[in-house]
Amino acid sequence: MAHFNPWHDVSRGDSLPEVVTGIIEIPKGSKGKYELDKDSGLLKLDRVLFSAVHYPAAYGFIPQTYCDDKDPLDILVLCSVDIPHMCVVEAKVIGVMQMLDQDEEDDKIIAVAAHDVSVNHYNELADLPPYLMLEMQRFFEDYKALEKKHVEVKQFLGREDAYRIINASIKLYEETFGNGAQ
């Protein structure tokens, strides 16, 4: 019997790369690091963050994408309500945070919930309150510090760079797994 896997069986969206599907693994405010179990398609608790920090936005992945770290492309989705685990959300892409995690590239697409009027007017990173990007940077630089693991946020880039990264992750997915459901 075939099973459903959110990574491979959910559409990545109809208006790529401007609007993508995000599948949320971790709600905003969580101290739990949840991630998709790639084999079963279920959500697993990877660890509880060993630090006095919590996720600054809903965090998940874009289905049918693949990156050099052997995972789907990560996404942070800003929304005025808490988005629960494994919820599918249409996300309007506004930029990308480029970082190194243990010396490995680990891009995070930054988006807003497309159907949330309190945030969907943001079109680029410069539209966000300045503290929000600092909060995201600080979280990702600090959340592994007590585990003695090094994470470095390199830079924030705009929509066009985010689109390029999304398209590259789609191409790598298709080269690695075939065309999928898209």
TrEMBL record:
Main localization (coarse): cytoplasm
Catalytic activity: diphosphate + H2O = 2 phosphate + H(+)
Residues annotated for Mg(2+) 2 binding in this entry: D74
Superkingdom in the source lineage: Bacteria
Gene responsible for this protein: ppa
Any single GO BP term: phosphate-containing compound metabolic process
Purpose: Catalyzes the hydrolysis of inorganic pyrophosphate (PPi) forming two phosphate ions.
Protein residues bound to Mg(2+) 1: D69, D74, D106
Subunit structure: Homohexamer.
Transmembrane segments: none
GO MF annotations in UniProt: inorganic diphosphate phosphatase activity; magnesium ion binding
Gene3D superfamilies: Inorganic pyrophosphatase
EC numbers for this chain: 3.6.1.1
Protein name per the record: Inorganic pyrophosphatase
Keywords for this protein: Cytoplasm, Hydrolase, Magnesium, Metal-binding
GO cellular component term, pick one: cytoplasm
Positions that bind substrate: K33, R47, Y59, Y143
Cofactor(s) named in the record: Mg(2+)
Keyword ATP-binding applies: no
Organism whose genome encodes this protein: Hymenobacter ginkgonis
Localization per Swiss-Prot or TrEMBL: Cytoplasm
Family: Belongs to the PPase family.
Any one Pfam family match given in the protein's UniProt record, by short name: Pyrophosphatase
